[in-house]
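FOLDING PROBLEM:
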Amino acid sequence: MGSAHYSVKNETAERTLYLRMEGFFEESEMKDFVRLLLEASASYGGQPHLVLADMQGLQISSLDVAKLLGDAIGKARQQGVTCCAHLTSSTVVKMQMARLAREHSQGDDVTVNVGSLEEANKVLAEARLWMGLDSHTRA
């Protein structure tokens, strides 16, 4: 087993998936994470929703593991992800995630790289306003 730690939290009132990934993912761990991510994303029935992906401490993945995550990114976008705030502490991981998003979004990349959780929350709050959701009219 690898040293991966992860969580997927679905805040339906905010139409937001909060993802946390850190450590080094083995293939089995990534498959478990991807299953949780896609189940949570599918719960919106194709309606627009957001993602905050906190990947601070995530280590570079093997090509096979990265492909699993890339495929999941593509499926989540097909299921309605309209904005994904990426928070990473590693330039190499940021580059790998950007490549995966590009490869699996066919020119429709919705990733915003952020430098802090505060910035991520600000980006997602703006996206909620754009989606017609604000603190008074959450769906």
